[in-house]
Design goal:
This protein is an alpha+beta fold. It has one domain (4-124): Sufe protein. Chain: A (Alpha-Beta Complex). It is built from six helices and three strands. A three-stranded antiparallel β-sheet has the order 1-2-3. A hairpin with a 2-residue loop joins β2 and β3. The structure holds FE2/S2 (inorganic) cluster. The site of FE2/S2 (inorganic) cluster has 10 residues, from α2 and α5.
């Protein structure tokens, strides 16, 4: 049911923890299952130098946050904005349809941390203003 990559990132999650004095912190949750994900970013000169996470949730959510933090490290803010939940799920060699919403949590947590960074620094990040952080987003996810 789960790919080897999902199992690997669940059993040996990368980047677990927090960053003291993080440039941006994002926390999202879903009423659907009650899971919570928190992502910390260290951003310098527009580059994500480090990313850590704490996830109180299912195995797919842990694997998704582990993969998402790996994917955004070293990237620019705009590059990180392009990483969707689909990209995270694909990097994990797929998630079962019923678990796709767990990867949405990772997408939202990264964007929420970027929003925190933008607000703290009084900057605008393209694509963030109209991003939907609501739970509706999760329910509307096509189950493919
Ligand atoms: Fe809720 Fe996975 S079941 S995030």
């Amino acid at each position: 049911m789960y790919s080897e990559k999902v199992m690997d990132h669940f059993m040996n999650p990368r980047n677990v923890g927090e960053i003291a004095d993080a440039s941006g912190v994002g926390e999202v949750g879903t009423a659907q299952c009650g899971d919570i994900m928190k992502i910390y970013l260290d951003i310098e000169d527009g580059i994500i130098k480090d990313a850590k996470f704490k996830t109180f949730g299912c195995g797919s959510a842990i694997a998704s946050s582990s993969m998402a933090t790996e994917m955004i490290k070293g990237k620019t803010i705009q590059e990180a904005m392009e990483i969707t939940n689909k990209a995270v799920a694909e990097a994990l060699d797929g998630l079962p349809p019923i678990k796709m919403h767990c990867s949405v949590l990772a997408e939202q947590a990264v964007r929420s941390a970027l929003l925190d960074y933008a607000q703290k620094n009084n900057i605008e990040i393209e694509g963030l203003e109209d991003y939907d952080f609501s739970d509706e987003h999760l329910h509307d996810m096509p189950e493919e």
